[in-house]
């Protein structure tokens, strides 16, 4: 399965609570933190919800 690398690039300070919870469920708690996930539909949906706060990179 393909992997994606997700990095938080913008602050979550002025975001709705649902977006803050989505970032935490992705494992992103600090600005600049990087996590790696499998590219499942659930993970891609979460990334899509906070796409303005994160950068995404595909790996093999």
TrEMBL record:
Boundaries of every Large ribosomal subunit protein uL30-like ferredoxin-like fold domain copy: 5-54
Listed SUPFAM superfamilies: Ribosomal protein L30p/L7e
Record keywords: Ribonucleoprotein, Ribosomal protein
Superkingdom assignment: Bacteria
GO cellular component: ribosome
Keyword Cytoplasm: no
Entry keyword Ribosomal protein: yes
Transmembrane segments: none
InterPro entries linked: Ribo_uL30_ferredoxin-like_sf, Ribosomal_uL30_bac-type, Ribosomal_uL30_CS, Ribosomal_uL30_ferredoxin-like
Family, similarity comment: Belongs to the universal ribosomal protein uL30 family.
The protein's assembly and partners: Part of the 50S ribosomal subunit.
Listed NCBIfam families: rpmD_bact
Official protein name in the record: Large ribosomal subunit protein uL30
Chain's gene name: rpmD
């Amino acid at each position: 399965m393909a992997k994606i690398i997700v990095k938080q690039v913008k602050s979550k300070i002025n975001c709705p609570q649902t977006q803050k919870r989505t970032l935490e469920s992705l494992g992103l708690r600090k600005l600049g933190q990087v996590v790696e996930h499998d590219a499942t539909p659930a993970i891609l949906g979460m990334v899509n919800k906070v796409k303005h706060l994160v950068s995404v990179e595909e790996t093999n």
